[in-house]
Amino acid sequence: MKSTVTLKLKIRKNPALLQTMEAYSKVVAYIAEQGYTNKISNHYQLHHLCYYPAKQHFHLPSQFIINANRVASQTLRSIKKSKGRQPLFKAYLPLDFDKRTFTFSFDKVRLTTIHGRIDIPLNIPEYYWKYLDWSWQTAQVMMHHEQLFIHITFTRTIALVANGGKTLGIDLGIRHLAVTSSKRFFSSKQVKRKRIMFKRLKARLQAKGTKSAKKLLKKISGREQRFMAWVNHNVSKEIISTAEPGDTIALENIKGIRRKHLGKNINFWLHGWSFYQLQSFITYKATIKGIQVVKVNPCYTSQICSHCMSLGSRTGNFFRCTQCDYSLNADLNASINLAKRGSMSDSVLVAVNQPHISGDDSKATRVSSYRTADELRDNVPRMERSAL
Fold first, then answer.
1. How much is the CA Rg of the chain, to the nearest whole Å?
2. Measured between alpha carbons, how far is 160 from 271 in angstroms, rounded to an integer?
3. How far is 370 from 234, CA to CA, in rounded Å?
4. What is the helix (H) or strand (E) element at residue 278, kind and residue range?
5. What does the pLDDT look like over 189-204, one tens digit per residue?
6. Which tens digits make up the pLDDT trace of 129-176?
7. Whether the Cβ atoms of residue 96 and residue 150 lie closer than 8 Å to each other
8. Cys-Cys link to 296, which of 207, 251, 279, 341 (CB 3.0-4.6 A)?
9. If you ran DSSP here, which 8-state letter would residue 127 be given?
10. What is the pTM assigned to this prediction?
């Protein structure tokens, strides 16, 4: 199984690199303008229309023009679907490099620019050293808050150990961030307090509506996303520390979880919760350690008895079986059922992982949920429903 990590490093500004990024942005804008004027969004048609004029006028290396054509084509297709106006681009767009346009060594990278190849010194934190013997693949230079960063991706094929280890089920929720079948509970109280604080602060800023308020609103949104990413990293790290190579982790297939409409207050918690991000962090950390991750159908996992497999009753956070009178925490019951389903052969193996995921959780609809509306509603405590 192939694992991918991304090293995010700060670099010094270099005039040749900045000029290349500026020229690249102008090429993207030029191709997008030509495509918008001629009503062309197809990648190949744009290439034949703009490649030679762009190369002659902007003097960029061929690979950058090809990348610019790809970016412009994707933008035009998006505008075509939404029937938007002619696109505008930043002065410094992210600049992509591959093995033809950059090389990596421990203390520097060599990048292709409009003035030839240049060496950019690197200061790699000790935390990243464990990835330096992996195979480097691509790089991206981007401007963020007037500071240059380079993102370098490394890949490595990791063999999953198949020695018949244990299966660990993980139930994600709102009352608890995660509950494992090994009886570990990760409380969400801190996250809920922070989310309510951010919600009230953002509501005040939105009501104010001034330019400075909008700027602060954007800053606060970024702070909230970074906080959630920090929490999810710590939770996933603790979960993976309890598993060994050869074990299997069973996660819920959460596709469609945001399509449910259960009321304003419950949807606030449900739609803003970073289920996908936490699953992604668990997945890539498990893969690096040689642990297999599978996705299973979570249908009725908190309503079926993990002891006798009969349909029981759930009241809030408590489960009781009507057949054998077995009772326990509903989320723990769900995690045990997930572990049992994860040991079955029809589970879906997760083969791709990304270590750095944006905090907006926008990709959550890519991955299936069959949780019932009652389960989702019960997972939000009454006190928190009325608190908003």
1. 25
2. 34
3. 27
4. helix 275-288
5. 888 888 889 888 888 8
6. 989 999 999 999 999 888 999 999 999 887 766 656 789 999 988 888
7. no
8. 341
9. G
10. 0.70
